[in-house]
């Protein structure tokens, strides 16, 4: 059975000399559903010398059952978002490229742990509903395990749990 998916395009903006410390500043402007007119290759949309915008089309985003917890965390944040991972070109720091798009909070966390650049932009309401339906069907929270209060655990078990051997107290 095919996975639910959506194809999107990402708009990235570059600002020239935003302050005395930076030559360039990049930000993700929006993520929109792919249209046939966007084509399949990145293209420059606008450049007035100060602000330039590029469109990176044709990102296929599939939903995976093992990411359901990440979708749930995104949805329960209060403002569901797209997570977009992008990189500055090593040879030309005035250029950047969009690498991946996700709806999983956990996946975005893994990217950040790997020192990648990740921005987020709001998820459109129709796609929020789509993601909620998928998450409701596939996300099952781990059942909470009841911990017995220490007063109900035998003294030997308390010592074993604390890493002590026998009846001796640590020296």
List keywords for this structure.
single chain; 171 residues; alpha+beta; elongated; DUF3305; DUF3305 domain-containing protein
What does this structure look like?
It contains 4 helices and 7 strands, in the order ββββαββαβαα. It is an alpha+beta fold and 171 residues long. The chain has one domain. The strands form 2 sheets. The protein has a 4-stranded antiparallel sheet with strand order 2-1-4-3, with no helix packed on it. It has a 3-stranded antiparallel sheet with strand order 6-5-7, covered by helices on one side. It is elongated, with a radius of gyration of 24 Å. The protein starts with a strand and ends in a 9-residue tail after the last helix.
For the largest beta-sheet, the strand count, sense and barrel status come to: 4 strands, antiparallel
Helix and strand composition category:
alpha+beta
Mean pLDDT: 90
**Low-pLDDT windows of residues:** none
Instruction: Kindly report the spatial arrangement of strands forming the biggest sheet.
Output: 2-1-4-3
β-strand number:
7
* Rg, nearest Å: 24 Å
Number of domains: 1
Amount of beta strand: 35-45%
Shape: elongated
Number of helices: 4
The H-and-E topology, N to C, reads as: EEEEHEEHEHH
Distance between the ends: 62 Å
Percent helix: 10-25%
Write the layout of secondary structure elements.
Layout: E1 5-19, E2 22-33, E3 43-47, E4 51-62, H1 68-75, E5 81-88, E6 96-102, H2 105-113, E7 117-122, H3 125-138, H4 155-162
Helix pairs in contact: 1-3
């Amino acid at each position: 059975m095919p996975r639910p998916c959506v194809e999107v395009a990402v708009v990235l903006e570059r600002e020239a000399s935003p302050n005395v410390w930076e030559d360039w500043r990049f930000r993700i402007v929006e993520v929109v559903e792919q249209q046939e007119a966007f084509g399949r290759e990145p293209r420059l949309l606008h450049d007035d010398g100060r602000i330039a915008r590029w469109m990176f089309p044709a990102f296929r985003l599939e939903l995976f059952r093992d990411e359901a917890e990440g979708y749930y965390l995104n949805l329960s944040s209060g403002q569901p978002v797209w997570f977009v991972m992008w990189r500055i070109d090593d040879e030309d720091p005035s250029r950047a490229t969009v690498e991946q798009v996700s709806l999983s909070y956990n996946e975005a966390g893994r990217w950040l742990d790997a020192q990648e650049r990740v921005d987020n932009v709001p998820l459109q309401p129709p796609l929020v509903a789509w993601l909620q339906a998928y998450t409701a069907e596939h996300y099952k929270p781990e059942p909470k395990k009841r911990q017995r209060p220490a007063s109900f655990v035998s003294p030997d078990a308390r010592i074993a749990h604390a890493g002590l051997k026998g009846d001796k107290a640590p020296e």
